[in-house]
Amino acid sequence: MKRKHSRLNFIHLAAAAVPLLLIGIICALAGKLDADTQKEQELALSNALEHAVTMCYALEGIYPPDLQYMKEHYGLTYNEDRFYVSYRPIASNIRPEYNILELDGKASDLQSMAAAAKQKKEQP
After folding, report:
1. Which residues pair with 87 in a beta bridge?
2. What residues contact 107, with CB distance under 8 A and at least 6 apart?
3. DSSP letters for 15-78
4. Residues 6+ away with beta carbon under 8 Å from 70
5. Is the Cα dihedral 87, 88, 91, 95 positive or negative?
6. How many structural domains compose the chain?
7. pLDDT of res. 31
8. Is the whole model's pTM more than 0.90, yes or no?
9. Closest to 56 measured CA to CA, from 15, 96, 108
10. Which residues pair with 102 in a beta bridge?
11. Rounded to 5 degrees, what angle do the CA atoms 93, 53, 39 make?
């Protein structure tokens, strides 16, 4: 009788553990899926930047002077709350450098710092 009782306890314990295990697996997969999606978005942004820079040079004979120019003339769009693009034009005939930084909900801080730096640079 005691043996049958301990077997029932084991079955109840196993039945309770299975849903917890499934929840853990689902959470782990969701985290991986989000990371994969983030990398895909970053790659898509990089490809879009490359395309806009190349198209501008091919059509106009100069590289774009800034990101805003690519947004207005070449339809560049991206999630500015998720990514920050550091775009550094060198000369109109030299391919610009850029970096894509992934933001973790701190877009407003980084963008305000970038805007302040730009204003400081534009002052005489």
Report:
1. 98
2. 80, 81, 82, 84
3. HHHHHHHHHHHHHHHHHHHHHHHHHHHHHHHHHHHHHHHHHHHHHHSS--SSHHHHHHHH----
4. 49, 52, 53, 56, 64, 76
5. negative
6. 1
7. 66
8. no
9. 96
10. 83
11. 140
Token digits of residue 51 = 């395309």
Crossing angle for the helix pair 67-74 and 2-60, nearest 10 degrees? 80
Helix count and strand count (H, E) for the chain: 3, 2
Determine how β-strand 97-102 pairs with β-strand 83-88: antiparallel
- Domain range enclosing 77: 2-122
Q: In whole numbers, what is the pLDDT of the chain averaged over residues?
A: 80
Beta strands in the chain (DSSP E): 83-88, 97-102
Tokens 């991986």 correspond to 32
Condensed to tens digits (0 to 9), the pLDDT of residues 54-109 reads 999 999 999 999 999 999 999 999 999 889 999 999 999 999 999 999 887 554 55
